[in-house]
Design goal:
The structure holds 3 protein chains of 3 kinds. Chain A is an all-alpha fold. Helices cover 68% and strands 0% of the residues of chain A. The radius of gyration of chain A is 20 Å and the shape is globular. The longest helix of chain B has 37 residues. The chains are: A mainly alpha, B mainly alpha, C alpha/beta.
């Protein structure tokens, strides 16, 4: 019974639509991670930036009644947190992982502290339709069975993410800016002596990763979940990290990884009675839904472990740069 | 290059002979970084936290009102932590698992690994402990309690070991694997708890019928309260012994201190762990099996955390039963990271940092509960539902500790001072690159004075709280608080803090001016402990000098 | 001993000054790198900047190239005062620098590396690969430096990479080229080829400053020489009017003998035997293709060769740090092939690694802890290999500090605070005092000051005389020739010849470049 239900699920768009949606949700911070680490700065704070982005987007959409302003605010907060991370990593040459952990904890604490204050202790209510990010229905094409409903009825941010994916691939590998970014990430001293401003490049890339993570947070709160609660990210930022590693720091590879992990999330979602978002499709008893909840995380570990050969990050990734020559 | 012969080997960097001065200096150098770290952490936390409270207090309030709210919040923080014997007992209760988890993170740091998975290891250890505690509920205390602890140790060790194996043999980055395993652990624990009779082969169910909560463990699994033990020796000391939550877990934590110290200082394993953490290349050269070392380190780290988990479930807070979200909401695992960093990964440091953090968490609880009520007594415009949530402490303290440690702000600040003074000194006695012991002692003295001042502040605050309560008084007595002296002290604290901050920034700028490239090794030698931490944490070569011509170590001169 | 020797005949080479550095002073707190340095380089000349490690040569050139700001002093380029705040300023003034450790990015192509920072189209355009290729082709044609624009830089040979570096500099329009120790990784023949290239550049109007500590090259290539010692200019010479001895004397400040005193070797029993060893490098390519030799008690076998021909891998295989894919290593009568580093050490081998700061020491440890590195589980230092004997460890370290004259305040001083010479002495002390049967010493005096070099050499000879078999690997030919009793030359993973120590440099150079012994016979 259960197995045949499972099989039905796998060939229905009920699974693949959220798979792509979650995939896009993961893709944004993952691409942020790619550009940050390509310039040589490890950024594990995407989780925290997503969380604050989600939080501020929800709060601000409620107070300004404008989705656009809320999304912009989320992007901005992501950028600011990334700026802090960049500041400590680049100016103070702090250990980038500890700095990232600090941001994540700061995000948790900050949102936990501000949430009751801004909502008078009540939490954020389920957001009404006009205050959410809409899905786009492409006329005509979206009626095609399966393909149409999976690919062409997605949220507007999904398409934004695809555009960003294409843009990043082009930027990194076909432009002079991308050449400089990659050189800074591989051998910052060589880039420095070639006259490139290593610091500026790194700042820009880290802040960009923050902007993308903030946008992802807005997508999460206003598009996917349409609510905010303190657990909303549930490790998505770290799964995005794993996707970046799995994709060997290349945009297309990362996108593929995000799709796979998105599938895992969708599976967990559709199988459980305690959904992150959406409705359970298959009835599962309480304890098994806990089992099912593990799926995305186990999948991520398997992906990391099962990599053929070790994935190599950009050579100078995570190493603070000491200018001043010899 | 031609190989010359010379009459005697010359070495132009002459260092003074050893002696008492040198040994004293080494001691000062070891102690002062820890003090500075703790001081600066507290300072930043107080400043930023209080600024946050001031700005986010709702309603149209004036500055002095906001200040009042802030100082009442902080007075509750202090009262909650140290205000009376009950509070101190609670602090000690919270301290035990934090210290143990702190060692879990610390030992991993020593090997150059980030154990962000302490939370998951606690969960597995605690859950396994509960299972043992329920299944053997009828066993006597001297069998059951060690049994539960052992189960915790084993559970945590396995969970940590998995991370070690994945890292050592597959190169899987431990930051991601530990966090993933955390989630797996929470859900695994939830699964085991939620299971009804037919889903756990061989073990049966451990849950209560109507809720996702376990049955109680056997009475032998409860950690005896210290108040109870003291009452056995001196009957009547504590009137209501159940309300003093300090328990035997504290002794277990102290045992952990000894174990950690012993491993790191006295065994070849500790030597090898630290070597791997500082330089994997040198470790390999030394014949150390790096893979095995990483696995063993993570296993021990997991074991520490697992024992912490067992202590949590055996403690008085949970009444020896857990539910399916207990570990998910428990923050000990994350707190342990700050504890370990603030304690500079050392045995005493982690103990003190754990104590400090426990005090703050304990105090924050009272702050959340009563800050609204207390402040709205005096400030009419404040809604009585207002409260300062504990997350403020989590945010303010943790993030700032981490930033301060990670940014090596303290060592950089101190290095700046050393450079500045060295430059002045070198100007006076040209050619000398060294700072005489006198100046280093002065710096140490400044640290000691600042630490003393802070302790004094706390003591005076407590006295002015008029909350020195007789041991057998009932619990509610700490609320008769006189706020005004605290107000003044807080103000002084602000002023001092801002001055020190400005000084820090100024020193930092001056230091950067003087820097202009890598510094000669001798000046950087001034604070080896902090640098050693930096090497452990940053995993970069200690010396910032790139390999210059022919690996010349003076780097700058070639 | 610090007189300024100025030998300049008026009328010789009256071209205008390309580079003038006046009263340049660079000091950090307590340390003076350059003191009142004056440098004059004429247009179209090849000017050598000479000095020992630590003399201040690279610092001076880094100041010229804008990587470091001087404490005081002025620079004039082509007669006009110049204010150089960074590499971009220097590049604009026509100065280019080829660093000793190449500033190339391995995964990028040659073309990408050359145009980096000055890409056709500017920062905000797409990458114009064809345009880049065209420009580079024009340069190649003009200067005769052949490289493949589309090759991946990391896969090129060292000589080719150097050519890319030079092209990089020429692409940016350099008229004044600074070359920092360019020949450290080249064979004598490749060095000659480089010289041809440099002379060609000069013929096209370039000016070249090159930093070196190799006197032979100074005489072969340069027009004039400036000698630095301890941050000061101690000599300004015209090359054809001076000699190696005079330059050496100025560099060091005293009479310099060119050999180590040692008695003839008395080889005893066979202690180290290496047979047909094959092994792979990091990248999976074959690094050793069948190496065989023997070393007896009481002799020093020197391995000569340009770095990168398998010497590092050979040392790693012998000392148990790398797997051999074939062949056998025997220490005494024990087969130690592919045993772990620990086991090899216990069998009686000591190893002075070429990477002092990376492998040989744990910089954050004290002297005590470094003295037992590698032997921490031996009975002398631990109980059953588990508990450390702290008292014994400290006592051991104190004894060795005294015996090897290591300058440090105490045995608990952190090793990172010591000078390179003292650090190396710690390693030497540790390895020699373990009473080994075989000692493998890899680049034992690299980057070490003279006093320590001499000390270490004396100790090595003393060990030899005490019956230890020593395998010496060094990139410094002089060191090999003065210490070895026999010299083996490695080329592309094989031993191509074993020569007596009196062998000529020429012959050695030929063997190092891959000539077979017969060819070398024919040539010399």
């Amino acid at each position: 019974m259960f197995l045949s239900q499972l099989f039905q699920l796998f060939i229905s768009d009920n699974l693949w639509h959220p798979a792509l949606q979650f995939g896009a949700l993961l893709l944004l911070p993952a691409l942020g991670g790619v550009i940050s680490e390509r310039s040589g700065v490890t950024n594990i704070a995407m989780e925290g930036m997503m969380l604050t982005g989600a939080f501020f987007s929800a709060i601000i959409v409620l107070s300004t009644q404008s989705v656009i302003i809320a999304v912009l605010a989320a992007i901005l907060t992501g950028g600011i947190m990334a700026l802090v991370h960049a500041f400590f990593s680049i100016q103070f040459k702090a250990n980038q992982i500890v700095s990232g952990v600090a941001i994540n904890i700061a995000a948790l604490g900050l949102t936990g502290f501000l949430l009751p204050l801004f909502t008078n202790g009540n939490g954020v209510p389920a957001l009404p339709r006009p205050l959410t990010l809409p899905a786009l229905y492409i006329p005509g094409l979206s009626q095609i069975p399966f393909v149409g409903s999976v690919f062409l009825q997605q949220n507007v941010i999904f398409y934004v993410a695809i555009i960003i994916l294409l843009a990043m691939q082009y930027l990194l590998f076909h432009t002079n800016i991308g050449l400089r970014i990659r050189s800074v990430g591989e051998h910052p001293q060589a880039a420095d002596t070639a006259g490139i401003n290593v610091r500026l490049v790194r700042y820009c890339c880290v802040v960009t990763s923050g902007l993308l993570s903030g946008l992802a947070g807005a997508f999460l709160a206003l598009g996917v979940a349409q609510i905010f609660n303190p657990d909303i990210t549930e490790g998505a930022g770290f799964i995005a990290l794993a996707a970046m590693i799995f994709g060997k720091w290349k945009p297309w590879g990362t996108a593929l990884a995000c799709l796979i992990f998105g599938l895992g999330e969708a599976l967990q979602n559709r199988l459980s009675l305690l959904p992150l978002t959406g409705i359970g499709i298959i009835d599962t008893p309480l304890h098994e839904s806990s089992l099912v909840a593990m799926v995305p995380y186990l999948l991520t570990i398997l992906a990391l472990v099962g990599l053929v050969g070790r994935a190599t990050a950009p050579a100078a990734d995570g190493i603070p740069y000491e200018p001043g020559g010899e | 290059m031609a190989v010359p012969t010379l009459e005697r080997p010359a070495d132009h960097q002459e260092l003074p002979a050893p002696g008492f001065g040198e040994r004293a200096r080494q001691f000062a150098l070891r102690v002062t970084p820890s003090l500075s770290a703790i001081l600066v952490g507290i300072l930043m936390m107080t400043l930023i936290g209080s600024l946050l409270i001031m700005f986010t207090a709702p309603g149209a309030l004036g500055i002095s009102d906001r200040f009042y709210i802030t100082s009442s919040a902080y007075s509750l923080l202090l009262a909650g932590a140290f205000g009376g014997p009950v509070n101190i007992a609670d602090t000690l209760d919270k301290m035990a698992p934090l210290v143990l988890a702190g060692f879990s993170v610390a030992i991993a740091f020593r090997a150059g690994l980030f154990n962000i998975g302490a939370g998951g290891q606690i969960a597995i250890g605690g859950t396994l402990g509960v299972i043992v505690g329920i299944k053997f509920a009828s066993a006597p205390a001297w069998v059951l309690a060690p049994g539960v602890l052992l189960a915790g140790l084993v559970g945590g060790a396995i969970w940590g070991g998995i991370v070690g194996i994945l890292k050592a043999w597959r190169g899987a980055h431990e930051v991601v694997t530990t966090i993933m395993l955390n989630f797996v652990a929470y859900y695994l624990s939830a699964y085991l708890i939620e299971c009804t009779n037919d889903c756990l082969p061989g073990i049966g169910s451990i849950r209560v019928a109507s809720q996702p909560k376990t049955m109680q463990m056997g009475p032998g699994a409860a950690l005896p309260l210290l108040s109870h033990l003291i009452n056995q020796i001196h009957p009547g000391t504590f009137a209501d012994e159940g309300s003093y939550l300090a328990n035997v877990g504290l002794f277990i934590a102290l045992a952990g201190v000894v174990v950690y110290w012993f491993i790191m200082k006295r065994t070849t394993l500790g030597y090898e762990i630290r070597a791997v953490g500082q330089s994997q290349k040198a470790a390999r050269y030394a014949g150390i099996n790096v893979r095995r070392n990483i696995t063993v380190t993570m296993t021990i780290a997991g074991a520490f955390a697992g024992v912490a988990g067992a202590v949590i479930v055996m403690g008085p807070d949970l009444l020896q039963a857990i539910n399916d979200t207990t570990f998910k909401t428990d923050t000990t695992g994350f707190d342990a990271i700050s504890v370990s960093l603030l304690g500079l990964n050392g045995p005493i440091g982690v103990l003190l940092a754990g104590g400090l953090f426990a005090a703050l968490t304990q105090g924050a609880g009272l702050m959340q509960a009563d800050s609204g009520r207390l402040a709205s007594n005096a400030v009419a415009a404040l809604p009585s539902s207002y409260s300062v949530h504990v997350e403020l402490i989590q945010f303010a303290f943790q993030a700032l500790v981490l930033f301060v440690i990670a940014g090596q702000i303290i060592p950089q600040f101190r290095t700046s001072i050393v450079r500045l003074l060295g430059a002045l000194w070198a100007g006076v006695r040209s050619g000398m690159a060294r700072l005489p012991p006198l100046m280093l002692w002065s710096l140490a003295l400044v640290d000691v004075v600042a630490a003393g001042a802070f302790v004094g502040y706390v003591v005076v605050s407590l006295i002015s709280l008029q909350s020195v309560v007789p041991l057998d008084a009932p619990v509610g007595a700490i609320y008769s608080v006189d706020i005004d002296p605290l107000f003044t002290l807080l103000l002084l604290f602000y002023v001092a803090g801002i001055l020190i901050l400005l000084l820090t920034i100024g020193m930092w700028f001056i230091g950067r001016r003087l820097k202009q490239g890598s510094s000669p090794p001798l000046l950087v030698e001034a604070f080896p402990t902090a640098e050693t931490l930096a090497a452990t944490v940053t995993q970069t070569p200690l010396s910032s000098e790139p390999e210059a011509v022919g690996d010349d170590p003076s780097g700058s001169m070639s | 001993m610090q007189e300024l020797t100025e030998v300049q005949q008026p009328g010789v080479n009256e071209s205008p000054l390309a580079v003038e550095m006046r009263h340049v002073h660079k000091a950090w707190p307590g340390v003076v790198a350059n003191a009142d340095v004056n440098l004059e380089v004429r247009q179209g000349e090849i000017h050598a900047l000479v000095g020992e490690n630590g003399a201040g040569k690279t610092t001076l050139m880094n100041i010229l190239y804008g990587l470091i700001k001087p404490t005081s002093g002025e620079i004039a380029i082509d007669g006009r005062p110049a204010h150089i705040t960074g590499p971009r300023d220097a590049i604009r003034l026509g100065i280019g620098m080829v660093h000793q450790h190449f500033m190339l990015i391995p995964p990028l192509t040659v073309a990408e590396n050359i145009v980096l920072g000055y890409e056709p189209g500017g920062v905000f355009s797409r990458y114009q690969g064809q345009e880049a290729r065209n420009r580079i082709a024009a340069l190649i044609k003009q200067y005769g430096l052949h490289v493949d624009s589309d090759a991946i830089t990391g896969q090129l040979s060292v000589g080719q990479q150097q050519r890319v570096e030079i092209l990089k500099v020429l692409y940016r329009g350099a008229r004044i080229l600074i070359m920092d120790e360019p020949t450290g990784v080249l064979t004598p023949q490749e060095t000659d080829e480089l010289f041809v290239v440099l002379r060609g550049l000069v013929a096209q109007g370039k000016t070249i400053i090159f930093i070196t500590h190799k006197l032979r090259e100074v005489l072969a290539l340069s027009d004039r020489v400036t000698v630095l010692r301890r941050g000061r200019v101690v000599g300004n010479l015209i090359t054809r009017e001076t000699s190696q001895e005079e330059i050496a004397r100025l560099m060091v400040g005293r009479e310099v003998l060119l050999r180590v005193d040692k008695a003839p070797a008395k080889p005893g029993e066979l202690l180290l035997r290496v047979e047909h060893i094959t092994a792979d490098s990091e990248r999976g390519l074959a690094a050793l293709r069948g190496v065989s030799f023997e070393v007896r008690a009481g002799e020093i076998l020197g391995i000569a060769g340009v770095e990168g021909n398998g010497q590092s891998e050979l040392v790693e295989v012998i000392t148990g740090l790398r797997r051999a894919t074939g062949g056998k290593v025997q220490l005494g009568d024990q087969d130690i092939t592919n045993l772990s580093a620990q086991q090899v050490r216990r069998a009686g081998m000591a190893h002075i690694p070429e990477d002092r700061r990376g492998s040989g020491l744990v910089l954050g440890y004290s002297i005590d802890n470094n003295m037992i590195l590698g032997r921490q589980r031996w009975a002398l230092f631990s109980i059953k290999g588990i508990l450390l004997r702290l008292k014994q460890i400290v006592g051991w370290a104190v004894r060795l500090i005294r015996e090897f004259d290591i300058r440090a305040p105490g045995s608990s001083t952190l090793v990172k605070a010591l000078s390179g010479g003292n650090q190396q002495k710690i390693i030497v002390a540790r390895e020699l005092s373990s009473e080994p049967k075989v000692l493998v010493a890899s680049q034992p005096t690299r980057g070490v000051d003279i006093g320590a070099i001499e000390f270490i050499h004396r100790r090595l000879v003393a060990q030899r005389d005490a019956g230890v078999a020593i395998l010496l690997v060094s990139a410094e030919l002089d060191e090999i020739r003065s210490l070895s009793d026999r010299i083996a030359v490695m080329y592309e993973g094989r031993i191509v010849g074993i020569e007596p120590p009196e062998v000529s440099e020429e012959r050695l150079g030929l063997l190092m470049a891959g000539a077979s012994p017969q060819q070398a016979d024919a040539e010399s």
